[in-house]
Design a protein that fits this description.
There is one protein chain. The chain has 404 residues and is an alpha/beta fold. Helix content is 32%, strand content 24%. The protein is built from 13 helices and 21 strands. It has helices at 19-31, 50-57, 76-82, 93-101, 107-114, 127-131, 133-144, 170-182, 216-227, 256-266, 310-317, 334-344, 386-397; strands spanning 8-13, 35-40, 85-91, 119-123, 148-149, 153-156, 162-166, 191-196, 201-204, 207-209, 231-236, 249-252, 272-275, 282-284, 304-306, 323-330, 349-354, 366-367, 369-373, 377-380, 384-385. Strands 12-11-8-13-16-17-19-20 form an eight-stranded mixed β-sheet, with helices on both faces. A hairpin with a 2-residue loop joins strand 9 (201-204) and strand 10 (207-209). Helix 1 runs parallel beside helix 2 (50-57). The two termini are 35 Å apart. The relative contact order is 0.09. The structure holds ligand PMT. Ligand PMT binds at residues 195, 197, 213-217, 256, 275-279, 281, 307, 309-311, 326-329, 341, 353, 361-363. Residues 195, 197, 213-217, 256, 275-279, 281, 307, 309-311, 326-329, 341, 353, 361-363 line the site of ligand PMT.
């Protein structure tokens, strides 16, 4: 049975071309056994008819404060209390601006202001509108107000321009809702910062120092934290993987310095920070402006400098209400090295994985970990999928799993 079965969902639809996808979302919700009340803005009705929506939901669609011919008043307060969740898909720049500022001039925004349930918003608009500082500001404000933003994807837009602004597919939005209701929401309202993947340190325009990290471990943690209701920011080095949960906010960086700068922006808001990235310890002192040519006799010498230690830097800045978790990738003297990093970087926990264990570490879909905490507290886990490992790590952080 779907975790959405029996749940009351308010589905808000605003005036964007992606409104046609809301029909699929509505069908998925109804099929899962949810009761769905559609609220559509006046502009939304230009894109999709209320008749289609009421036929599928089995309920009259609400758009205005009053039904014109009967004078019946629709209570936004009752709707706000009735809802177990509210999802607005598509959400236009205009609706998000009204939500961010509390401009209650239509039934949808008024119901949003009355809602006590979690609110999910799937923006959809042209790429320039999406990137405009006003939109960025409004989305940030909504996030700070606890709204779950379901990030739009990159792709071809209604304008035929290509970029970020395509509403997440209905199946993706449905999954976010299912995840929300299936997982224990022990991280609801919390921000979780995760680093993932390798860093690349440029030697010249075509070469870099890097490593084999695929990002799978970091992204599995991101999906698990998002499923538990967290607002998740992943600061990611160059990887091919993507989060499964579209609400995860991925910030792409290349080098260790860029990763540090992005982490420092997010860390003050973070309740938990998990450093799963394999950060290059060294970078070339300088990057050659053009490709280093293959010389006949000479072998070029690359001088290296130390990269900043991101985990240690955050460890210095850490407040008492924050949890900082590191990883240790070791090849020998595993426990001693991990315990040393736990102490030196001022971490609250370190997750040890050893390249000596088959199926652990870089690139695999599995991992075998031991969690160390200050005071010699140690928990060993068998080989598991990285998804299960992510669950174990978050259970350990939130105190759900026993400490051994
Ligand atoms: O990405 P996958 O292919 O799924 O692989 C997962 C993983 C093996 C990369 C992951 O499980 C892991 O172990 N990540 C940490 C790898 C690493 O760099 O370990 P380390 O022992 O060198 O670093 C210790 C800790 O300090 C780590 O949390 C690391 O992110 C952090 N660090 C290291 C160096 C540096 N300059 N800055 C840092 O923040």
């Amino acid at each position: 049975m779907s975790p959405l079965s029996g749940k009351n969902i308010v589905l808000g639809i605003t005036g964007g071309i992606a409104a046609y996808k809301s029909v699929t979302l509505l069908r998925l919700l109804v099929k899962a056994g949810a009761e769905v009340q559609v609220i559509i803005t006046p502009n939304g009705k230009e894109f999709i008819t209320p008749v289609t929506l009421s036929s599928l939901s089995g309920r009259p669609v609400i758009s205005e404060f009053f039904t014109a011919n009967t004078g019946e008043w629709h209570s936004h307060v009752d709707l706000g209390l009735w809802a177990d969740a509210m999802v607005i898909a598509p959400a236009t720049a205009s609706t998000m601006a009204k939500m961010a500022c509390g401009v209650a001039d239509n039934m949808l925004v008024t119901s949003y202001l009355s809602a006590r349930a979690p609110v999910f918003v799937a923006p959809a608009m042209d790429l320039d509108m999406m990137a405009h500082p006003a939109t960025v500001r409004n989305i940030d404000r909504l996030r700070a107000d606890g709204v779950h933003i379901i990030e739009p994807a990159e792709g071809e837009l209604a304008s035929h321009l290509v970029g970020k602004g395509r509403m997440e597919e209905p199946e993706g939005i449905f999954r976010v809702l299912e995840d929300y209701f299936s997982a224990g929401q022990d991280l609801a309202g919390k921000t979780v910062l995760i680093t993932a993947g390798p860093t690349y340190e440029r030697i010249d325009p075509v070469r870099f120092i890097g490593n084999y990290s695929s990002g799978k471990m970091g992204y599995a943690l991101a999906d698990e934290a998002a499923a538990r209701g967290a607002r998740v920011v992943v600061v990611s080095g160059p990887v091919a993987v993507r989060p499964e949960n579209p609400s995860v906010d991925v910030r792409h960086v290349e080098s260790a310095c860029e990763m540090l700068a992005e982490c420092e922006k997010v860390f003050p808001e973070a309740y938990i920070a998990i450093m799963a990235a394999a950060v290059a310890d060294y970078a070339p002192v300088s990057t050659a402006a053009s490709k280093i040519k293959r010389e006949r006799d000479e072998v070029p010498v690359i001088h290296l400098k130390k990269n900043p230690d991101i985990a240690a830097t955050l460890g210095q800045a850490k407040r008492g209400d924050q949890v900082l978790v590191g990883f240790a990738l070791e090849t020998d003297h595993e426990l001693d090295n991990a315990a040393d990093k736990l102490r030196r970087k001022n971490l609250d926990m370190i997750v040890l994985n050893s390249l000596r264990d088959a199926g652990a570490g870089f690139g695999t879909d599995t991992n075998k970990i031991t969690i160390l905490r200050p005071g010699g507290i140690r928990t060993e886990y068998p080989l598991k999928s990285k998804k299960e490992v992510a669950r174990d790590i978050l259970d350990n952080i939130t105190g759900k799993s026993p400490l051994v």
